[in-house]
TrEMBL record:
Cited InterPro entries: BchE-like, Cobalamin-bd, Cobalamin-bd_sf, DUF4080, Elp3/MiaA/NifB-like_rSAM, Methyltransferase_Class_B, rSAM, rSAM_horseshoe
Residue ranges annotated for the B12-binding domain, each copy included: 1-133
Keyword Iron among record annotations: yes
GO cellular component annotations of the record: cytosol
Keywords carried by this UniProt record: Iron, Iron-sulfur, Metal-binding, S-adenosyl-L-methionine
Location of the Radical SAM core domain: 172-403
Entry GO MF terms: 4 iron, 4 sulfur cluster binding; catalytic activity; cobalamin binding; metal ion binding
Protein name: Radical SAM superfamily enzyme YgiQ (UPF0313 family)
Cofactor: [4Fe-4S] cluster
Length: 589
C-alpha cells in the first residue's frame, strides 16, 4: 500500500513536525511519503498533487487553521477514489470525536491524541487482520455506528526516533522554519489552552536532541523553533540547553523558545546577557492578561511583577528579542480592563506585541464553561469569540482596530521613533493612540486595500492632521527620521514635500565639507568627498534638536540638521545631526 501523510501549513516557510514524527516512527516497517501544502493553495491543486502520488492511505494532520480546507480536500479525494483510506489526526480532531465522525464521513479513522504509536498500529491492522478494536486511541465506524477506542498510555519519548534525518528535507532546511520539541506536556492549567489537558511534562533524550540540533545546523537550518510549552520549567535543563546552543551554534542560526517569564531566575537572565551572542535567541512570552482576577478565573498563575523583571532584564541586556502575547476576551476582562492590560504590557516595549482574540478550542475547560460567561463564538474553526457578558461585539470590533494598527505600525518597526513620541507626548496612554488611529483607519476604508511603505506614512500624517496637535511639525519630523533610517538606499522621492531650497541645502553641504566636525566625530571619521555627500545623503531640517533628544529623551525646540547617509560599501544607513545654529544659517530661505 502507498502511504502518504499530509498537512496544510499556515505558510510555505513552516514545516510540519507532526508528519515527520509519524514517518520516523512508522519506518522502516512502512515507507511513508510526506506531502505539505499551505492553506492558500487551491484545494484542486492539492488534490491533483495527492492523486499523482497514487495513495492507498492518506493521513491528515489537523489544526484550527487548516481543518476546513483539509475537509474540502478529503471530500474530493473520496469522490475520486472511494476505496482510499483517509485518517484524520491532530489536536483539532482529538476532542469531540463523535462530532468529527459525523461531520466528516470521508474520514475512515480518527487518531486521538499522541499519534505516532496509534498510526503505526493502525497501519499494522490495515495490512493485517483489520481488527481495529485492538488499536488504542483510534475512532472509526462499525455498522454505521461510532466506535471510540480508549487512548493509549503515553509513549516513552526517550525511545523516539529522530524526525529530522530524511534526505528529502536536507535541501530545504535553510529555507524553512524547523520545529523541534524537547518535551511534551505543560505543568500549568490555563483553561483556554489545550496543553492544560495533558498532565505532567515528559522529556526526550537530551543527548539525542543535541545530536539532532547539530545535524540541523550542519545541514543549513537557520531558524529553529522549540515547541515546548514551557521551555524553562526545569531551570537546570534550560541552562544546559542554553549553554549547549551558545557553545555550538553556527553563525546566523536563530533559536526561538516559549518561556514562562515569571519563573525565570535573574541569574539565568544574567548568564544569557553575559554569554549569548546577540540575535541567537528569541523569547515568546504569553502574558494574556495583567488582571489578577481574570487570570484566577482561567486558573492561570502569573506574577506580573516578576514577569516585568524578566522582560526588563532581557531587554536591557540587548541580546534577545521578545515577542509578548495578549488575549482579548478572557472572562470578566471588559474593554477598560483589556485597555489596562495593553498599556501594562506596551510599557515594557517588547520587540513584538501580539494581540490575539480568545478562541474557544474544543476540549478546553473554558469552552465547556462557555455558558457561564455567555460566550458567543464562531461555530467553525478558529472558534474565535464574538462577545461575552462583559465584552459586546462592538468592543471586540474596536479592539480589532487596535490589532490592525499594532501590526502595521509597531510590530513591523517602521515608525518606532514616531510612535514613541506620540504615546509619550500626545496621548494619555499608548492604547488611546492605537485605538483612535485604528478607528480612523477603518472609517477611511483603508482596511480593505493594500499599502506601500510610503502610503503608511501619508495615512498617518493625514490622521495626525485631524487631531489638531500643536506639535504637528515635530511629529512629522520624527516620521521623516523613521522613514530615512529604515531605507536601504537613498529614496528617490520621499512622501513629504521638500521645503529646503537647493541653494540653502548646498550651503549646509559646503559647511560640512569645510568643517565636518560640526556633525560630530563619527561623521568626521567618514571622510566623505563632495561627490559622495551629494549623491548618497538626504538632508532635512527638523524643528527640534535631534541629538539632544537621543541623549536625554527630552525635547529642545531648537531646529537641527538631519543628514541620512546611505553607506553603499557597508550596506548601512547612518544618521547624523547637529543644531542649525552651529552652521550660522537660517533654517530655510
Amino acid at each position: 500500500m502507498n502511504i502518504v501523510v499530509s498537512t496544510l501549513n499556515a505558510k510555505y516557510i513552516h514545516t510540519s513536525l507532526a508528519l515527520r514524527c509519524l514517518k520516523a516512527y512508522a519506518e522502516p516497517d512502512y515507507k511513508v511519503d510526506m506531502a505539505e501544502y499551505t492553506i492558500k493553495d487551491p484545494a484542486m491543486n492539492i488534490v491533483t498533487d495527492l492523486y499523482k502520488r497514487n495513495p492507498d492511505i492518506i493521513g491528515f494532520s489537523c489544526y484550527i487553521w487548516n481543518i476546513e480546507e483539509t475537509i474540502k480536500v478529503a471530500q474530493m479525494l473520496k469522490k475520486i477514489n472511494p476505496e482510499l483510506i483517509i485518517i484524520f489526526g491532530g489536536p483539532e480532531v482529538t476532542y469531540d470525536v463523535t462530532h468529527w465522525l459525523e461531520r466528516i464521513p470521508e474520514a475512515d479513522f480518527i487518531a486521538i491524541g499522541e499519534g505516532e504509536e496509534t498510526f503505526k498500529q493502525l497501519l499494522d491492522e490495515l495490512h493485517g487482520d483489520r481488527q481495529f478494536e485492538n488499536v488504542s486511541g483510534v475512532a472509526f465506524r462499525k455498522d454505521g455506528k461510532p466506535v471510540v477506542n480508549p487512548q493509549r498510555n503515553k509513549i516513552d519519548l526517550r525511545e523516539m526516533p529522530s524526525p529530522f534525518r530524511f534526505e528529502e528535507d536536507r535541501q530545504e532546511l535553510s529555507k524553512r522554519v524547523v520545529y523541534i520539541e524537547t518535551s511534551r506536556g505543560c505543568p500549568f492549567s490555563c483553561q483556554f489552552c489545550l496543553s492544560s489537558i495533558e498532565v505532567g511534562v515528559r522529556y526526550f533524550d537530551r543527548e539525542k536532541v543535541k545530536e539532532d540540533i547539530r545535524y540541523l545546523m550542519d545541514n543549513g537550518a537557520r531558524t529553529i523553533k522549540f515547541v515546548d510549552r514551557t521551555f524553562n520549567i526545569s531551570r537546570s535543563y534550560a541552562m544546559e540547553m542554553f549553554q549547549f546552543l551558545i557553545d555550538e551554534h553556527r553563525e546566523g542560526t536563530v533559536f526561538q523558545f516559549e518561556i514562562t517569564a515569571d519563573i525565570m531566575r535573574p541569574e539565568v537572565i544574567q548568564f544569557l546577557n553575559d554569554n549569548a551572542p546577540k540575535g541567537l535567541f528569541r523569547f515568546e512570552i504569553g502574558v494574556q492578561s495583567t488582571n489578577d482576577a481574570v487570570n484566577e478565573l482561567v486558573k492561570r498563575k502569573q506574577n506580573f511583577k516578576k514577569l516585568t523583571r524578566t522582560v526588563t532584564m532581557v531587554k536591557e541586556g540587548g541580546k534577545i528579542d521578545q515577542h509578548l502575547d495578549l488575549i482579548a476576551g478572557l472572562p470578566d476582562e471588559d474593554y477598560n480592563s483589556f485597555k489596562n492590560t495593553f498599556n501594562d504590557v506596551f510599557a515594557l516595549r517588547p520587540e513584538e506585541l501580539q494581540l490575539g482574540f480568545l478562541k474557544m478550542l474544543r476540549g478546553t475547560g473554558l469552552r465547556l464553561s462557555a455558558s457561564r460567561y455567555n460566550y458567543q463564538y464562531m461555530d467553525q474553526s478558529p472558534y474565535e469569540i464574538l462577545s461575552n457578558n462583559v465584552l459586546p461585539f462592538s468592543d471586540v470590533v474596536r479592539i480589532k482596530h487596535v490589532e490592525d494598527i499594532l501590526e502595521k505600525f509597531w510590530n513591523d518597526h517602521r515608525m518606532d521613533e514616531t510612535i514613541e513620541f506620540l504615546v509619550e507626548h500626545c496621548y494619555d496612554t499608548p492604547f488611546d493612540f492605537f485605538q483612535n488611529f485604528g478607528t480612523y483607519w477603518d472609517e477611511m476604508g483603508w482596511v480593505r486595500i493594500g499599502h506601500q511603505l510610503e502610503d503608511l506614512f501619508r495615512r498617518l500624517r493625514q490622521y495626525i492632521e485631524t487631531e489638531n496637535f500643536s506639535n504637528e511639525e515635530m511629529i512629522e519630523g520624527f516620521m521623516k527620521i523613521d522613514y530615512l533610517q529604515n531605507q536601504k538606499h537613498k529614496p528617490r522621492k520621499p512622501w513629504w514635500d521638500d521645503k529646503v531650497e537647493k541653494q540653502v541645502r548646498s550651503h549646509y553641504y559646503q559647511q560640512m565639507l569645510a568643517n565636518p566636525s560640526i556633525m560630530g566625530q563619527a561623521f568626521e571619521a567618514e571622510q566623505l568627498a563632495e561627490k559622495e555627500l551629494y549623491k548618497h545623503t538626504v538632508l532635512e531640517i527638523l524643528p527640534f534638536d535631534y541629538m539632544y533628544y537621543k541623549q536625554t529623551g527630552k525635547i529642545n525646540e531648537q531646529p537641527s540638521v538631519l543628514l541620512a547617509y546611505y553607506d553603499q560599501k557597508a550596506n548601512d544607513t547612518k544618521l547624523y545631526s547637529a543644531p542649525v545654529e552651529a552652521f550660522g544659517l537660517p533654517v530655510v530661505s
